[in-house]
Amino acid sequence: MSRLNKELGLLQGIGLLSTSLLGTGIFVVPALAATAAGQASLWAWLILIALVLPVAFTFAQLGRRFPHAGGAPHLIGRAFGARSERLIAFLFLAVLPVGLPAALNIATGFWQAVLPVGRGEALLIQLATLAAMLLLGQRPARASGLVQGLIALAIIGTVALVWWVGELPLASQPLLPPVGDTWPLIPAALGVMFWCFVGIEAFTHLGEEFRRPQRDFPLALLLGVLLAGLVYWAFSVAVLSFGVYGDEHSDAASLPRLMHLLLGDRAGWLVALVGYLACFASMNVYVQGFARLIWSLADEGKLPAPLAARNRHGVPGPALLLVVAICALCAGLAAMLQLSVDDLIRYANGNFILVYLLSMGAGVVLLRGIWRWLAAFSALLCALVLLALGIDALYALGLLAVIALLDHWRGRRGTQASLQS
């Protein structure tokens, strides 16, 4: 029996996932990938989609069989025990200090392209963004589904406009160019591009709120992944065709530069609005997912009981407030330390990939037949992507080790206290 209101349908699910995947990445990461691998980045997108689909199929089967607000940590706990669930839940929550500031910086960057926004004003925009997510999150889940479906249409329309006005594809830019000796550049590009397909694990936290989770959850997940992959590839073609990439400044402003080339100065506000809404949509799914994870842990007695409360709409209001407060604190710290978006993305990716890897391991334990073999293959793919991150993966691995040591120390203290009593 579901503990949360079952309000989501197929189209709302596709809207939530596709905007989560497109969100912060669609107008920035294609340029970062082009800088890393040039024209070979078009092949890298196809490779990444092929890598993600088995993972998506595995998540779809797990979510279909075990819909739960605890999401990926709950699945890992079912497979490997309660201690594993705790460790991965905190590892997943540890994305907040690096992932959310990166997303908020990208969102603010779109307004900086049209307004004289300084460091203080940028932080105010980020805090206002978090406040808007807090207000939207207090409404039923279908409200977020409707808003994000409209944002998905705006993103797809913007990419379609670029293709139409730019008369793509150009003869000078093959859709699948020969890569020659540039294949070795693809792993570096994949390390950045994986950011675009994080969101699947956050989407699993909403599985308990689908009206027909056995049918609609896996369909929404798979169709959302395919739609997002197609849009990413299409925008990458545009970035390469007009050369709006090459360094950190060019990559961050790829969409404004592209739209200025095609439509002139009048495109500035359109770019700012659509880019900001895309980032908002992605962050909203994560904030709602984090809140549901905290609520689920509290509801099961693993976190303080007040976090298990729900508001009059049946959504976890106190947990959402806690997540937004943590995000606001982390955004302020990131602004003070002036951390770069590229560094934040790579560090956050390590956490996500590790969660994916262990989720696929849970699939090997929990699934049967061909789905178990697919989960094993997906685990291997995730391990290879983790290796591709190189030294940046040490953030996630080191963090997991610290969390495990703290949990072990907490367990020993609890045992000693019980023996003494």
TrEMBL record:
Q: Which Pfam families match?
A: AA_permease_2
- Select a single GO molecular function from the record's annotations and give it: transmembrane transporter activity
Where does the protein principally reside? membrane
Give the highest taxon in the source lineage: Bacteria
Is Ligase included in the keywords of this UniProt record? no
Q: How does it sit in the membrane?
A: Multi-pass membrane protein
Q: Where does the record say this protein resides?
A: Cell membrane
**Which keywords label this protein?**
Cell membrane, Membrane, Transmembrane, Transmembrane helix
The membrane spanning regions, by residue number, are: 43-60, 87-111, 117-136, 143-165, 185-207, 219-246, 266-287, 319-341, 347-367, 379-406
Q: In the UniProt record, does the keyword Transmembrane occur?
A: yes
**Record-level GO cellular component terms:** plasma membrane
Q: Which PANTHER family match?
A: AMINO ACID TRANSPORTER-RELATED (PTHR42770), L-METHIONINE_BRANCHED-CHAIN AMINO ACID EXPORTER YJEH (PTHR42770:SF13)
Q: What is the official name of this protein in its record?
A: L-methionine/branched-chain amino acid transporter
